[in-house]
Amino acid sequence: MEKLLASKKLSPRWYERFPRAVPVGIFSLTMAVALLSVFAIETAEDRRQSALIAQTAQTIASGLERRSNANAAYLRASAALFATQQMVEAPLFRTFIRQLHLDGRYVGSDGIGWAMKVSRDDIPTVESIMRRDADAGFTVRPAPPPAQPYVTPVMFLEPDTLRNRRAVGFDMTSESVRRTAMKAAERSGQPTATGHVVLQQEGRPGGPQGFLVFMPVFSLPNEDGARNLRGYVFSPYNAQQFLQTSVDAGHLSGAGIRLYDQDASGLTLMAAIAPSEVSGQVIRRPMEISGHRFLLEIEAPATPMLSTMSVMTLLFGLLVATLLLVLARLLTQQAMEDRIALAWFEQQSSIRNSLTRELNHRVKNTLANVLSIVSLTRRRATSLTDFADSLEGRIRALSATHDLLTQSDWGTTPVAMVIKAELAPYAQDVHRHLDIEGPEVELAPNDALSLGLAIHELATNAAKYGALAVEQGRVSISWQMVGENLARIEWIERGGPAIDLETKRKRGFGTELIEKIVAHELRNPVDLRFEAEGVRCILLIPVRRRNDFAIRQGRA
């Protein structure tokens, strides 16, 4: 065991020096890995969401463009037919349009209309013909200004509904946005869309936003190859209706859509489908309808703060981190306990060696005391019986004090216990008068042995010749501290037989033992007086610190 302990380094290892920081560090590191995993999952989820929104934006834009292209094809077909006619009359227009839309759908628009170019001077004639053949209330509105040479009123608009009748008679040339688109269509010969306008069908100036698509209709070329503009086939669009009919709501999955008119003045919101929850994640995609630029904005639906996979990863990471925290705490605690146990075993080994040395020392001292006692007793004894009795009493005194020291684990022993142990045989007699008093004072083992031997000799002498030999005798033992490290013990006998002067002059073995052996062991002189009232003895005993004599300092 000694070799094993010697080979072990008892200095604490790094993880033992930080028993709390190491588990917390492992927990923090594991949670950091879990959080990084969650971050990676959420990043991938955001990218997937962005890809889905981009795909949705592409699908919606394609759907809107397909609807507008299909309507543009109808406008081209109508323009080709009306270009061959001398006059576009109501029966012809309605028959053609109705045959064109056999299924009753107008692909997101409010229908198809005919706006004829009319000279300013021919306005009354056109109004008269329209009132007679088609619409009794037909009027070109608003009245053109004097400088305007012609007007382009809406002659027909199919389907013939109350909503569409509000637009009949309206002069398209009177409004700048419509006029600009019509001029562009005339130059290109292709369907051309306006910017945002409020359709006449809405019946109020501040109504919902919409737009129109114009297709110019020219007359057949004359001999010079020239063609004259006869009017426009057009389709009006309510932007909100156009957006809703072009988008499959089932594929939105809670996403929001906004349609903007993009012109020189900026962006103007024309229609919107609100998302289920606002997320702020927006994708914008420009699109073109009949030569005009629009902007489509898709807002992704709000998603939970953490996806299901992230929550599961976080919970799993928390569980693993907690388990590692507990395991690391147990391991560091066990390492600390093992180190403490090794230190304790090392200390016990040291204590055992000290005990062996101390026991050897104390046995030698005790044997030396015994030899001195035997030698002095032999010289003073008058008979074998006297020698045996004296020797036995002194050996018992040493034994009694040894018992006290053994009970205190060879530590400090109170003065009161030493005195009471030596006077125990005399305290049992009710006729004996013993007064023992003093403060709590602890003595070192060697000093306790010397005090016990001195008290034994004084008590034996008092029992034979002094105060303990008669009933009226009284013995008083008191002690007190007379210095920081020095106790004064006083033995006083009163009421005993008178002391003979011859006895006082003769020095017995007890007197020599106290004045020589005890004084030598206590390292202080003993004041032993034989007064007329009785024996008086003053002992000075050092009160040493525990470290000066203790063989064990307690267990770590």
Automatic annotation (TrEMBL):
Transmembrane regions: 21-41, 311-331
Main localisation: membrane
SMART domains membership: CHASE (SM01079), HWE_HK (SM00911)
Domain CHASE, first and last residues per copy: 84-253
Broad enzyme group: transferase
One matching Pfam family: HWE_HK
One Gene Ontology CC term in the entry: membrane
InterPro entries: CHASE_dom (IPR006189), CHASE_sf (IPR042240), HATPase_C_sf (IPR036890), Sig_transdc_His_kinase_HWE (IPR011102)
Gene3D superfamilies per the UniProt record, alphabetical: CHASE domain, Histidine kinase-like ATPase, C-terminal domain
Subcellular location: Membrane
Record GO terms (molecular function): ATP binding; protein histidine kinase activity
Keywords: ATP-binding, Kinase, Membrane, Nucleotide-binding, Phosphoprotein, Transferase, Transmembrane, Transmembrane helix
Known EC number: 2.7.13.3
Catalytic activity: ATP + protein L-histidine = ADP + protein N-phospho-L-histidine
GO biological process: signal transduction
Name by which UniProt lists this protein: histidine kinase
